[in-house]
């Protein structure tokens, strides 16, 4: 292979890895290409909140030394972006919040440690919704991320989705070869769908949560966002694995996910849940969904109508469970141990002033809801009730899988990306929450889900489909997503304006 | 169920978030919108249904009750806004 240096950022992760191994270019050249692209794009896109250029070059040089000797891990020399939610030793880690002002952890998250073990290079930390609470990346203390996509004939800035908006924008705009992300209610899959990228939320327990800033511990999972299904599979193999430091980490062998990508869907049964056909669903989403099913059928899958009767209750149950867990997790930000402190007349005053100044509005709103539903007299009516509904949601999926369904196909989002500062969404908190209507069920049931680009809306904006799998059967999702990726055949790269 | 202004202030106090007088009405509207949205759960019959305690069918692992880590107080306090001799410093809490 021969590459112009300016083109290196356009390579898929798989091709970059190949080029590095074949010594077509060095890790330092690849890293410099990405650092240059970031420098040029970040003033427009705001995808990175910290760029670790010196560290990136040091890591790249170390990779080059290994590659020169024919050594190195599966991601040796591959430059990645890291969501600001992952603790990175000695490096900016603030969950895009003011309350973690200046925080530089003394430790490394297990997921990022796995990536460095496998040879990856860290380019920097990626913007996100504050504490991963949001669907548009507008709640970040560092300001919104701007999507690399614009509607045809328009100069209006669009959101990249959230909460992993920086991850999705950076991957889509060639500012990293792949990125880590996290998903509590759709925060990997919705931004992936908005930016024409591939994002997978693995089964709960697949990736360690240790060292990842906690939002809602029973729902949070890390996963990759990448430009192709194969790239996502390669990254996920490295990110996954048992970790004794996370008590919910599952002690199962990690398959070579990339080996499953070309497995095809012949003989698989794909479920189509009737409850996801919502009133007022845009015709282009409906068409995309039908098309996706046709593609899978053409490759030998059988399509079967199924019912997941408690679907509509997933989002309301989520908006009890997630804020409740968040109110508990975020109690640690008190102005004493790390981050921001605002002095007060006594310790309670200090707590209250610190938290009022340090948290943004959306985070405060969710802590307040969570505090309320956990408070005396309301716990059973809200929290316990929601956890019972969650049992029913999970049972719906179990019934579908027990009836012979191998994976479920749904739209990833109810629409394409919307504008930054959308007034109707700002006026009604619940309207923004509805972005996660197709994705949140998967977190509530702990299942794996992947979003894959499948088409475009009338304005040329990417649209994604979601595949939901059985617990720990991410391999089927990669195989089916690959069929959709190939069949869609589209070019999901943004037209550069930045 | 809906919250009134006094409840908003009480929740703010429980959550240790200062809610200024001018913010109460805004929070009240937002919290009531969300509580109104979750109200639809009352339609669901959960008779005989267990509340979920683990989304994966596994017991939380336990480790031996022994010291496995530690001995680096200076790192623990390394990010604190105010420390002295590896202690976190806070305003006086005992008279």
TrEMBL record, chain B:
Heterotrimer of A, B and C subunits. It catalyses: L-glutamyl-tRNA(Gln) + L-glutamine + ATP + H2O = L-glutaminyl-tRNA(Gln) + L-glutamate + ADP + phosphate + H(+); L-aspartyl-tRNA(Asn) + L-glutamine + ATP + H2O = L-asparaginyl-tRNA(Asn) + L-glutamate + ADP + phosphate + 2 H(+). GO terms for molecular function: ATP binding; glutaminyl-tRNA synthase (glutamine-hydrolyzing) activity; transferase activity. Belongs to the GatC family. Its EC number is 6.3.5.-. GO terms for biological process: glutaminyl-tRNAGln biosynthesis via transamidation; regulation of translational fidelity; translation. This is Aspartyl/glutamyl-tRNA(Asn/Gln) amidotransferase subunit C. Keywords: ATP-binding, Ligase, Nucleotide-binding, Protein biosynthesis, Transferase. Transmembrane segments: none annotated. It comes from the Bacteria. Allows the formation of correctly charged Asn-tRNA(Asn) or Gln-tRNA(Gln) through the transamidation of misacylated Asp-tRNA(Asn) or Glu-tRNA(Gln) in organisms which lack either or both of asparaginyl-tRNA or glutaminyl-tRNA synthetases. The reaction takes place in the presence of glutamine and ATP through an activated phospho-Asp-tRNA(Asn) or phospho-Glu-tRNA(Gln). The keyword Nucleotide-binding applies. It is an enzyme of class 6 (ligase). SUPFAM superfamilies: Glu-tRNAGln amidotransferase C subunit. Signal peptide: none annotated. Pfam families: GatC.
